[in-house]
Structure to design on (333 residues):
């Protein structure tokens, strides 16, 4: 599905020309310089950016916690500035660094309280609450006060409370924070299941690229207060997919004059990075032409060396993200 654009009927969340400057005693900070994006109904997207990029300010602007200097935000066609109450009814969030639950209440009591604020009755929706507890693996903690839970269970409780409100739009800021590996996988599986079954619109912000790559199909990357990438994860990865190889050869009895091999490779493949150990020669090289690998193999064959291993570097979202941010900041990676 193509990315939704501003004004498309498929958009549930639309942000256009958002700007925000914070003025302090000594200086002013442009947190958001010009941000525009759309999120389609039923879409789960990743919202990424380095620290200070403007992610949190953007999310809080959408939620009505920060008033932007200019720009428009609409949720389900409702102008968030003109009708904030109606817009707020359609949104829920788990924010990093915020107290998202009441610690002296149990897990179940928290879900009842926060859902009740949005008009969701626990008595009528008990089956759905039970479903959330099961999906998030919180059944055995339902009657435990949140203050007595581990950080991971506290985080899952916060997610349960946000989802219990049954809002069409949910923001999850660092949802796997404090979770161990197993719990992180459980939460990811739960989010994918909930999104698939309920078709909610979910915006996930996280520094854990594995989480984003696992649960989202599309990412919006911001840097220095602007959107610098907005594309599907597959398309972003294809942009940075290279033919990088690492070849390890052994200095065996047949190999004559290893220094000549190093010289030959350096001259024939200027982009190669060569590292010698007492027993091996390690060659790291990137090719723009896919057939160049055969030229290197022929060179190694001419020297009668034994190839111990050939590995190809695989690009992931973290590498693509870093490369995009480096380019935006004028840094060559």
């Amino acid at each position: 599905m193509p990315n939704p654009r501003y004004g498309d009927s498929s958009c549930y969340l639309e942000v256009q020309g958002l700007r925000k400057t914070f003025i302090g005693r000594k200086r002013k900070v442009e947190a958001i310089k010009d941000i525009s994006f759309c999120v389609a109904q039923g879409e789960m997207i990743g919202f990424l950016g380095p620290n200070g990029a403007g992610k949190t300010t953007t999310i809080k602007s959408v939620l009505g916690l920060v008033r932007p200097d200019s720009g428009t935000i609409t949720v389900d066609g409702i102008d968030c500035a003109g009708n904030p109450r109606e817009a707020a009814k359609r949104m829920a969030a788990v924010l990093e660094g915020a107290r998202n639950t009441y610690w002296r209440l149990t897990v179940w009591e928290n879900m009842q309280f926060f859902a009740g604020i949005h008009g969701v009755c626990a008595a009528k929706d008990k089956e759905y609450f039970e479903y959330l507890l099961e999906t998030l693996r919180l059944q055995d903690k339902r009657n435990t006060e949140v203050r007595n839970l581990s950080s991971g269970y506290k985080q899952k409780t916060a997610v349960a409370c946000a989802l219990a409100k049954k809002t069409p739009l949910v923001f999850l800021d660092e949802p796997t924070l404090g979770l161990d590996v197993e719990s992180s996988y459980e939460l990811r599986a739960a989010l994918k299941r909930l999104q698939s079954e309920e078709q909610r619109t979910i915006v996930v912000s996280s520094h854990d690229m594995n989480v984003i790559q696992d649960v989202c199909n599309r990412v919006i990357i911001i840097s220095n207060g602007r959107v610098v990438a907005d594309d599907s994860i597959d398309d972003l990865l294809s942009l940075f997919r290279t033919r990088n190889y690492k070849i390890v050869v052994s200095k065996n009895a047949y190999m004559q004059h290893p220094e000549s091999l190093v010289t030959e490779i350096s001259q024939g493949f200027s982009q190669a990075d060569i590292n010698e150990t007492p027993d091996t020669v390690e060659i790291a090289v990137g090719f723009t032409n896919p057939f160049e690998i055969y030229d290197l193999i022929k060179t190694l064959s001419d020297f009668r060396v034994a190839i111990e291993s050939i590995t190809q570097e695989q690009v992931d979202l973290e590498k693509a993200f870093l490369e995009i941010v480096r380019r935006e900041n004028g840094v060559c990676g």
Summary: The first helix runs from residue 55 to 63.
